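Our platform keeps sequence and structure together, in a single record for each protein. This encoding replaces a full spatial description with a residue-level series of whole-number codes. We quote a single record here, exactly as it is kept in our systems:
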Amino acid sequence: MIINQSSVISYQLSVWKGTWALIRYRPGFFWLSVAAAVYAFGMRTVPGWLQKLFFDRLTGEASVALNLPTILALIVAIEASRMIVDVGGNLSAAKVRLAGQTLLRKNVVQNILRKPGALPLPISIGDALNRLDHDLADYGDFPTWIPEIAGHAAFTLFALVIMARIDGLITAVAVLPLIGVFFLNRFAWERLMRYHRESREGDSAVTSFLGELFGAIQAVKVANAESSAMYYLEKLSDERRRRNVRRGTFSAMAFSVADHMGDVAVAVMVLLTGAAMARGDFTVGDFALFSSYLFFVARFPANFGSYLSEIASQRVVLDRVQAMHPDAPPESIVEHGSIYEGAYKQGEFASGKFASLQVANSAERLERLEIKGLSYQYSVVSNQLSDDPSLITDNRLLNTGIANVSFTLPRGSFTVITGRIGAGKTTLLRVLLGLLPMDGGEIRWNGEVVADPAAFFVPPRSAYTPQIPHLFSMPLRENILLGLPPQAVDVDSAIHRAVLEADVAQLEHGLDTIVGPRGVRLSGGQVQRTAAARMFVRSAELLVFDDLSSALDVETETLLWERLLAGKQGSRGARRISLLPCSPALYLFVVSHRRAALRRADQILVLENGRLAAQGTLDELLVHSDVMQELWHGKANGDE
């Protein structure tokens, strides 16, 4: 279900609280940029004062010891110092901006990864990328507006004090635009917020559709729907253009009004200074000083007004970002943490310097895994079905989850979950692993309750392969390792266990072959076995497969199970799985209805309508379970 980005959020992170957190993340660089901006802007007042001294001396209004060369030299020195300081300030502001943007993106991605893995994002992938890029770039840049505003405000204050000592009435005219900007922004605030939100939503609509279109090109071509897709994209783009034009026009009008209020103020001050000079109350030096100050003083209201409008934009940005992970605390967006600056350049990741990124080497030996009363109910029910209670009672039409499922995995066991389509097999795996949040029940690892399955069931405790594994457009080796140092694991052994060695030998560049987006250069069976090899290199105690062999031919599937179960001896109840070099693999927990897996299982769990209908060995279930009989004879899932 997609949640609209304008949905009401329970409570929000304030713009100022978030900005202060970003400032505190790199406080030294921030305050250095503020000091540099105050100096660079504030020193603009000195050349104007020197011009006043020069003209007053030239007209005989004042006796000053400074001659023209000295004044010129001072102006050049001041401007040169301003330029150097300004460069340093910009570099410091860049440090604040880039570090803040990186921190924001890391925190948002972490919040997304912390949620149960089987729950979809509340927005589309394309929209999420747009928000991670543009929205967080805007908010990360927001603190760097403060030094410029602070510097411009410092100059304006210094200039007004100097000007007021010369003529208070003329100086008062320069303050009027500031008052006008305040009332202008109060009038335009809500509309600025609305237009900016609509503009962002228009951008999101386009990027969302593009993301879905790129991921479904084959479906579009098969349906001969290219022209329809382009028409819809053109329609979305036109709506985005309309919204952006409206926002840009209104923002430009507001900025123009504030800017022209300053121009009007400058014109009035020029007229007043002319009248004062005619009366003899104003010297040529005073006029030169006012002339050098008026432009920057008059531009401050417009600059300040633009900053106020930017605050409205950042409110929209924070709402959109929080909508990506509505269950996470808003403060987590700006939570401080390491961003490993310069680590890639220095090769420190490869050297293992950052211990927090390393995978644990061992886990507590699993002796017994107990599941008691595990339950989960999907919260989204079809409106059409909900209108007809007789349909809802048939869970084969609408599986709403699992209810009160209990079982135990003894040490060294090979357990298979089976059942009709929609019986809740995948749901059970996902709830067990924390990919879906359980509604009830408990999980015990060696008798200890697992409080947070999502954080607990990760390598080296467990490894999981879903029905449709995800591969990245990277070399096959990197898809198996996924960040593990190659020297620390036995890739060859993992490939052997996954029955992948013959396939690797046929690839153009072997393990260095780029598999393409989602592994498009590989067959379905190769994708599944690559994901299996990814599990094996992680030396997990518990291996969890969701229909691993569904895309395999009979010969490959048989060989796969033989290698996985190599070393098992004795009766089913006493079987033991051998320790292979790349993984202890002491437990196998598998969803399957394939005979090759069912024959080798120590115990089979039969699910029906989200409940555990039967449990036992294959021979026992073929006698006592109608569902097992249907599955075995290929009647339940239409599979012989």
Notes: The beta strands are 368-377, 401-410, 414-419, 440-445, 448-449, 462-465, 542-546, 587-591, 603-608, 611-616. The domain at 15-327 is CATH 1.20.1560.10 (ABC transporter transmembrane region fold).
